[in-house]
């Protein structure tokens, strides 16, 4: 294809999936130079990927530590798929996935032999690069945190992109745990990729959020709490609140774990919340106009008990896709396509481990699933720091 102008080759390659692009790097030197042009080709390829109307690649995030993430490519015309395991730091680390932004994963990790060596990592599955951020606990002495009877830990963690400064930022909210029960959030820190230290945020509103994967939308990270949704604006670095629809998350009696499990997701570019409890249908609320309480609309997802082999704790909406159907995670492992009439279409995939029983929670481990768009950008260059295992 040397007779084709480089511009046409660039346009063709920019429409291929990430894995195919990597294969094309080995075709010839001309293609290699085009693909490795990080100032021109990489942003073009990522913008083209974002233009795809329907998500086809998803990541499965199992609960607990030391459990790998799996990636699955789904096409509605097929019903059987193969899951690919993504390794982060190796078998000797306890890892916990936080979220992803523009193809980059954010997660925390500690060595299995020590709980004191906590670090945050940024990982790009497409390029297999992994960068360890500086320790955030080194500056805790200046925070004036009094812990007479509690343990300090990272309660919430997430990465986002600040379009005003063209920079990735990582936010972590520190919590204090006094044994069993809901932790109390006390401080917040932010890290800008490319710098060397975390910065303490003085404007943290001291609201306790659920430990969950944040929803990234409208330039803000969002976490659910009992009273409302906490929002962190990545540009201004200010905190705010988004009001819930007509739902009540406050338990009638003190409980270690809430009976109602809210999960924030982004559906069709809208902030959404799925609320379910054992044995009930799932209430899916979608905010059509951001931060306008009156714009919440409700959809009801009917549970399906026809499949005896599917035992589930909750149903998690993932994305709208072909023919307006809603892709769901059903039973923490089964992907289904759901239409408004209540009809389910199941998708099965191989190479995914069986759910294991958790003796502490007295239940089987669960997974969450999120759409994923690959990015060829180099985080080594972006972070300007040495990658570490």
UniProtKB/TrEMBL annotation:
InterPro entries: F-box-assoc_dom_typ3 (IPR013187), F-box-assoc_interact_dom (IPR017451), F-box-like_dom_sf (IPR036047), F-box_dom (IPR001810), SCF_F-box_component (IPR050796). SUPFAM superfamilies: F-box domain (SSF81383). Residues 1-44 form the F-box domain. It holds the Pfam family FBA_3. Gene3D superfamilies: 1.20.1280.50. PANTHER family: BNACNNG10540D PROTEIN (PTHR31672), F-BOX PROTEIN CPR30-LIKE (PTHR31672:SF13). This is F-box protein. It comes from Thalictrum thalictroides (Rue-anemone). The lineage of its organism: Eukaryota, Viridiplantae, Streptophyta, Embryophyta, Tracheophyta.
């Amino acid at each position: 294809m040397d007779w084709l102008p480089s511009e046409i080759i660039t346009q063709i390659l920019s429409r291929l999936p990430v894995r195919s692009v990597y294969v094309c790097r080995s075709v010839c030197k001309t293609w290699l130079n085009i693909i490795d042009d990080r100032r021109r080709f990489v942003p073009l390829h990522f913008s083209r990927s974002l233009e795809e109307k329907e998500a086809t690649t998803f990541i499965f995030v199992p609960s607990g530590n030391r459990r790998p993430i799996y990636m699955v490519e789904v096409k509605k015309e097929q019903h059987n798929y193969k899951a690919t395991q993504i390794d982060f730091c190796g078998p000797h680390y306890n890892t916990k996935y936080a979220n992803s932004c523009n193809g980059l994963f954010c997660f925390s990790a500690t060595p299995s032999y020590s709980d004191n060596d906590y670090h945050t990592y940024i990982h790009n599955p497409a390029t297999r690069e992994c960068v360890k951020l500086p320790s955030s606990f080194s500056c805790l002495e200046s925070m004036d945190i009094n812990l007479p009877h509690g343990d300090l830990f990272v309660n919430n963690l997430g990465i986002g992109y600040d379009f005003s400064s063209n920079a990735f930022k990582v936010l972590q909210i520190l919590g204090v745990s006094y044994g069993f029960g809901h932790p109390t959030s006390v401080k917040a820190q932010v890290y800008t990729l490319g710098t060397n230290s975390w910065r303490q945020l003085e404007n943290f509103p001291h609201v306790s959020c659920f430990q969950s994967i944040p929803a990234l939308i409208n330039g803000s990270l969002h976490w659910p709490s009992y009273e409302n949704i906490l929002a962190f604006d990545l540009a201004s670095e200010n905190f705010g609140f988004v009001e819930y629809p007509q739902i009540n998350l406050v338990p009638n009696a003190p409980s270690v774990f809430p009976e109602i499990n809210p999960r924030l997701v982004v559906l069709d570019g809208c902030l959404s919340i799925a609320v379910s409890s054992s044995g009930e249908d799932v209430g899916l609320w979608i905010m059509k106009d951001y931060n306008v309480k009156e714009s919440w609309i409700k959809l009801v997802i009917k549970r399906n008990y026809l499949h005896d082999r599917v035992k589930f704790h909750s149903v998690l909406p993932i994305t709208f896709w072909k023919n307006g159907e809603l892709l769901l995670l059903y039973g923490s492992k089964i992907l289904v396509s759901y239409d408004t009439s209540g009809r389910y279409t199941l998708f099965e995939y191989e190479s995914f481990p069986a759910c294991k029983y958790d003796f502490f929670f007295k239940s089987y481990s669960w997974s969450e699933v999120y759409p994923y768009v690959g990015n060829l950008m180099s985080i080594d260059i972006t972070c300007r720091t040495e990658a570490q295992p």
